Structure formats: C-alpha cells, structure tokens
Here is the input.
Amino acid sequence: MTEDADSPGGQPRVRQLRLVVEAEDFDAALTFYRDVLGLPEREAFEGDGDARVAILDAGAATLELSNPAQVRLIDSVEAEGRPSARIRIAFEVDDSAATTTQLVQAGAELIAAPRETPWRSLNSRLHAPADLEITLFQELGAPDT
Here is the structure.
C-alpha cells in the first residue's frame, strides 16, 4: 500500500467497499446472489414503505480501475470483443464453468462462456438480476514451465 493512501495513524482510510445496487425485483435478486451464487447474508433490514436491504458478503473487495485500452483488451479476450458495461462486477469462484451453468439455470443471460485468459484465469460473462453485468473468474495458477 502506498504511504499517501494511509491515514496519519498508519491504517488504511477505507475499511470496506460496499457496492449498492437498486434491485427492482428485490426477492429475485436476493435469491440469485444469496442462494444461487452463495453470497452469505451479513445483515438485513426492513423499514417503512416496504423498504428492504440485504448486505451480502462477497469476500475481499477490490476496486479495479482500467483505462479504455485495457477494457477493450479484456472484452476481446473475455467476450469476443463485445463491449462490457461501464461497471462490471467480477466474482472469483472455485469452479467458473459449474457456477456459470448454475447462474444461467437461475436466470442469468450468458454473454460469453468460460474461457482461459492469457493471465491464467477461467472467465465467463453474464447479464444477471438487478441489471448487473458480471464476470466469474477462477484462478488457474501459474503457467506450466
């Protein structure tokens, strides 16, 4: 971590990345992400006027910033050049092929089937509930030498 990213006490300034997504069909999105993809529910709250929120644990969070050339490169490798959404959510999973199949059976639209990337991951791309474009990736390890 760079020194200017730390607070004066030496601790990171940001403690958690939370992606907030408005889901028109809340129940369908909750079932998809919690029950099918397997994101454990950390907290859930209800409020007046049928207000509902579920906070799902997605493991470690990172913010991946890519310039347009990198996005085009990823799109060419991952989806035959089909442009990705401006914001795409990537989930690391243990078995990209099996998880892709499960998510398609649960209602996701397959954009690109799992394929090995030059950076040694097995990636697929889907359009998922709550109008999110997602990538599933499975790290394959270092190349054989």
Observations:
- The first strand starts at residue 41 and ends at 47.
